[in-house]
Amino acid sequence: MKKILIWIVALAVGAVLGVLGIGWVDQLMEFVASTYTRLFQLLAVPTIMLAVITTFADFGSKGSGKIFGRTLTYTLLTTFAATAVGAALYVAIAPGNLPLETVAEGSKAMADTPSETYYDHVLSVVPNNIVRPLLEGNVLSLLLLAFAIGIALAKMPPSDNKAVVVKGLLGLQELLFMLIRGLIRILPAGIVAFAAQLSAQLTAGVVADSIGRYVLVVLGGNVVQFFVVLPLLLTVRGLNPIRVLSSMMPAVLMALFTKSSAATLPVTMESAERRLGVEPRIARFVLPICTTINMNGCAAFILVTSLFVMQNGGTPITLPTVLLWMLIAVVAAVGNAGVPMGCYFLTLSLMSGIGMSISIMGIILPIYTIIDMVETAENVWSDSCVCAMTDHDKLLGD
Questions:
Q1: Half-sphere exposure (CA, 13 Å, Cβ side) for 210?
Q2: Angle of CA points 179, 181, 183, to nearest 5°
Q3: What's the pTM?
């Protein structure tokens, strides 16, 4: 409770500093926030690799298939639920078409935006050397490498060499967790800086000209998923959602401000193990996987934004169209990396691939910062729920 109060105070202090609009203070807060994010990104890449490798090497035939099955089941359940909520709100709120002059302004905003087909996105996941994914922080490529190395270690016959390799990897993992705990101790400083940045952006009018109903659908869907759907799933599985959320609050707050579930992963794992009491081998197996495939907020954004763009392009929004794009959104979100603006560029790729005008994406771009923050927080909260339910199922021996 004491830590939560400290975080709330940090949020309030940061918000005030951002509203003041003092130049040197804004620069200092931007420096602190960037430094904090870079440090977590530094630890995120090796944390993901080591967590997956050591878990597979240790699990071997001792239930990794069952744990992965539960993880995948809960991931698909929560992701489909998020798209269903988004679809229902889209139909209920019914965003209208944008004026032609507004769309024209969006075209200008998209002039310098890089384009990438969905095939390019999938191909970029397949590594062509072992160094590039590490340098680029490509989470999906790193997971493929980690899976391969972990499975290879699990299949190796027992030997002194195998024991030395596994012991060395576990030692490196413990070292990383010591560094992570140090960063968590100074989390309030990061919260102050992130909150100052956000309030400064709001004061500058980043969301002043929002698209109204569209934004209401996107953010409303995230709120319903965060506060209704996920707590309900936890309750059905016999878990207290308030306890789970309070335990995972450092990770949710970190995700809110960094806009990267991959960068937040070290905090998510630490919170799950130390605060929530999840068995370490479960947390270190489930959370790295969830970071890349459990994208509730991203799936809802892809669905709602795609429907909005297609509607403005003259495509009738019928029930079969909505159902088809619910499926596409889930599949696309599962293949998305947990990095800032990943959902935005993935949606852009999908719309380009079906020949839709992407000028509306330029109108969404100025307000996507706020959307991305909320989505990432929801993604990490969903990761936490999946991890908690998987651990609970194991304890029950289901």
A1: 19
A2: 75
A3: 0.70
What single-letter DSSP state applies at residue 99?
P
Q: CB within 8 A of 38, min separation 6: which ones?
A: none
Q: How far apart (Å, rounded) are the C-alpha atoms in residues 180 and 118?
A: 35
Strand ranges (DSSP E) for 143-189? none
Between CA 74 and CA 385 the distance in angstroms is 9
- CA-only gyration radius of the chain, Å: 21
Condensed to tens digits (0 to 9), the pLDDT of residues 114-169 reads: 555 556 656 777 778 777 777 776 666 777 788 788 888 888 888 888 889 988 98
Please spell the DSSP secondary structure of 286-351, one letter per residue. Answer: HHHHHHHH--HHHHHHHHHHHHHHHHHTT----HHHHHHHHHHHHHHHHT--SSTTHHHHHHHHHH
Q: Find how far residue 68's CA is from the centre of its chain.
A: 19
Tens digits of per-residue pLDDT, 189-222? 877 887 787 677 655 544 434 467 888 899 999 9
Give the pair of three-digit tokens for residue 163.
Answer: 């024991």
Is-contact 26 204, C-beta < 8 A?
no
Residue 284 or 138, more confident:
284
| Cβ atoms 258, 252 nearer than 8 A | no
